[in-house]
Amino acid sequence: METFGERFKRIRVESGYTQRRLAAEVGISGAAISQWESGETKADKVRAEYLDTAARVLHTTVRHLLKGDGSEGHTKVSKSVRVDAFAIHGMVDDDDFNPETGVMIPVYEMDVSGGPGALVLEFAETKYKLHFTRKWLKDVNAKPEEIRVARVRGDSMQPTLWDNDKVVLHMGLTRIRNERLFALAYAGEARVKRLYLLADGRLRVVSDNPDKTKYPDEFIEGDDLNNILIIGQVIHKMGEGGL
User: Fold this and answer.
1) Rounded to whole angstroms, how far apart are CA atoms 172 and 203?
2) Predicted TM-score of the model (pTM)
3) Cis-peptide into 159, omega within 30 deg
4) Distance between CA 69 and CA 171 in Å, rounded?
5) Domain-by-domain residue ranges, the chain?
6) Class of the CATH-defined domain 4-67
7) Mean pLDDT per segment of 10 residues, for the chain of length 243 residues?
8) 158 in helix, strand or coil?
9) Which fold has domain 94-238?
10) Backbone torsions φ then ψ of 27, nearest 5 degrees
11) Taking Cα atoms as reference points, which of 164, 172, 171 lies closest to residue 114?
């Protein structure tokens, strides 16, 4: 009969995950996965939230990981359709908010544009606020004051971002990392674009919209580079885009 560790390893391998990749999905170290599989960490010592996440990533159930399907032999995991669904905690007002476990981040009307752009004057706070856990802030290595939630305007970043979607900006991340999304201010406009810093020093500004006739790549170079302000990196998105 398979042990928990043997079963877990088999299911992981069948699902095409390395220990390191699965650990990243679950939010733990690769060493922890290794300890599960070797039997160094017993099943009853594995934290429930980690086991639940691992089961979801591997398209199986916690019961199957722990017990198998009840047979004596080597069982195969049935393939299921993955649907990520999350419970929403409703808060009537700020009195329901626990500042020890979360923070409320205002949504700003910065008119961060996914289209032609809009004048950037200042962050104008709206009446809307979104709840983020302190654990999430720790995971993205951000302080609450470094986070901005802003609206996207236009269709140039479709299908990645749609008009009126919201993006979470980490204003502490301003060093350009190729292929990542950034909010930037240039020539009096604010935009969300995919940036590439080329070997010759030019900055390539890319729209995800495949219509390159309407949204061609832009190349910024020379003194014009001094007129660019990187507002922050997009680290999260939310919205109804594409529905």
Assistant:
1) 20
2) 0.56
3) yes
4) 48
5) 4-67, 94-238
6) mainly alpha
7) 88 88 86 90 86 87 79 41 44 56 72 48 62 84 86 86 88 91 81 92 92 92 87 86 61
8) coil
9) Umud Fragment, subunit A (2.10.109)
10) 95, 30
11) 164
